[in-house]
Amino acid sequence: MSEESTGMSRKPTAQGRSPGEERRPSVRRFGDDDIQRILQTAAELQERTSLVPHDGSRGLTLDDLRQVAREVGIDPTFVDLAASHVDAPFERTESVVAGGPTRWHFRTSVPGEIPTGELDRILQAIRSTLQEKGEVAEVWGRIEWSHDEVGSTIVGISSRDGTTEIDVSAVKSQEAGLIHFMMVPFGGILGGAALGSLLGISGAGILPIILMMSGVSYMGTRLGWKARSAWWERRLRRLVERLAVVAQDVARLPESD
Fold first, then answer.
1. CA 83 → CA 40, 50, 78, distances in Å?
2. Quick one: three-class SS letters along 172-210?
3. 222 located within any domain
4. Pick from 63, 86, 109: which residue ends a domain?
5. What tens digit of pLDDT does each residue of 171-226 get?
6. What is the domain extent for residue 178?
7. Residue 166: how many CA atoms within 13 Å on its side-chain side?
8. With a threshold of 0.70, does the pTM exceed it?
């Protein structure tokens, strides 16, 4: 008996599929921050400066991002490349004492090799992003930029076998230790003295108050370092993405024989 003869029709499901239609496998959906970074990086890779951010709350799939890129004039190929940099592997080492990460290591790669004459553009991208001149050295064919001031930051660039590898590492445990060393005693003594004066306590009786305020100061410093470490992580991630853009622009695939 046909659907027309019964007066009934098969209705699609809430997702727009008919009951017999095969369910698609789940795919990754990018959040708002990733969407903005991917589209921005893709635009830079194509030497464009315009960016149309998406403010939706559902997130977008990679196919959605490709469609948005087409609408704003960006080659979807560069969206794929930018997304690979957003998903680039990285490691962070948390410090329970400090209250946040103190070490990071980011890695990514782009196809092609960077000609020696184009290395200045890479160094300029590092210096302009981190606002530090740093020092440059060549170690076993690998170019290293480093800066060591209250913690080290090292950028490594190596081009071989048709691929350019980029890795960025930073160790900020010394900076975290210095901040805690300065803030905790200062907050404890100053806060303890102020509270003791307010309560009319002096002499040896103020020592427990100083210890208590030192604990309060320590908790506040841990929160402060958590925010500071998040700032460092954003800065390092931005550096990796910027280097990938420049490397993609100057890298050349080796000529085949």
1. 11, 18, 8
2. CHHHHHHHHHHHHHHHHHHHHHHHHHHHCCCHHHHHHHH
3. yes
4. 86
5. 999 999 999 999 999 888 888 888 888 888 888 888 888 899 999 999 999 999 99
6. 174-226
7. 28
8. no
